[in-house]
Write a structure and sequence with these properties.
By secondary structure, this protein is of the alpha/beta class. About 45% of the residues lie in helices and about 15% in strands.
Length: about 270
């Protein structure tokens, strides 16, 4: 006699946001069972009592169970009432935790769906920005320079890279392009919206001292690298380029990386 195939158990996940929390809970729970015959039905972005009650009724039709992460008191109450009426077994994933923390912290929760997703999104945006900045440091991958939120340009030792990484930590996809000698800027840079290009400049004496310190530490390059007259020519060429293409200009002579980065963030509205 053929073995009777087990009936598939439906599990409804009801969420006012992305449903990621509920999904993680049910996946962790199901992992404790050997090959469970379960069909998971996700109802996400549920923002009204009517939509939530409809999900309860749908669950009742197949004797499903329902897990939810609803934070709106009105919608949660509607679900409880409908579940009692329709004889649907439910589990409130966030409710007990919210109540416990509210009593402990002596402050009410915000009760806004999707807040945990926003926190994770900020973290993922920072990771993406850092990856982008690493790949687009010092003029690399010019072909997709237009994907940057901001692009820093300037001669050697004006803190382009370190400023980019500070911006990346704030979730800004930052790239930097060096201005070498008296050469013209690359075509990919000229094509960009000038509002997102920032030319970093510095007075010649300050830049000379920074380059001399680098030369002492890592070995002296060609003489022109630390020659104040040549440095002044480089800076003059960069200033003329910034003016010609309408780029933002920031003098970083005696400003910290944090100050420069915050100035850029302010100008781009972040």
């Amino acid at each position: 006699m053929a073995k009777k195939k087990p009936k598939v158990q439906k599990v409804y996940l009801l969420s006012g946001g992305t449903g990621r929390t509920a999904s993680q809970v049910i996946e962790s729970a199901l992992a404790q069972f050997a090959n469970p015959e379960v069909e998971v039905v996700r109802r996400l972005q549920v923002r009204s009592a009517r939509a939530a009650v409809k999900t309860v009724k749908d669950a009742a039709k197949t004797n499903a169970v329902l897990l939810h992460t609803l934070v709106s008191p009105e919608i949660r109450e509607a679900v409880v009432e409908a579940a009692t009426r329709e004889h649907v077994r439910t589990f409130d994933i966030l409710g007990p935790a919210l109540t416990l923390l509210e009593d402990s912290l002596q402050t009410p929760p915000q009760r806004q769906p999707g807040l945990s997703h926003e926190l994770r999104k900020e973290r993922y945006d920072r990771i993406d920005a850092v990856d982008f900045t690493l790949a687009h440091d010092d003029g690399c991958l010019m072909r997709d320079l237009d994907q940057a939120d901001v692009v820093l340009v300037g001669v050697s030792r004006v803190s382009k890279s370190v400023t980019c990484f500070y911006l990346a930590y704030r979730g800004i996809r930052a790239a930097n392009v060096p201005i070498v000698g008296l050469n013209d800027p690359p075509e990919e840079l000229v094509k960009l919206d000038p509002a997102k290009v920032f030319g970093l400049t510095m007075n010649a004496r300050r830049l000379t001292s920074l380059r001399e310190a680098r030369a002492e530490t890592f070995g002296a390059p060609q003489d022109s690298y630390v020659d104040q007259h040549e440095i002044a020519r480089e800076l003059g060429h960069t200033s003329a380029m910034i003016a010609k293409y309408g780029w933002n200009c920031i003098d970083v002579s005696y400003r910290s990386v944090e100050e420069v980065a915050h100035d850029i963030l302010k100008r781009v509205g972040k």
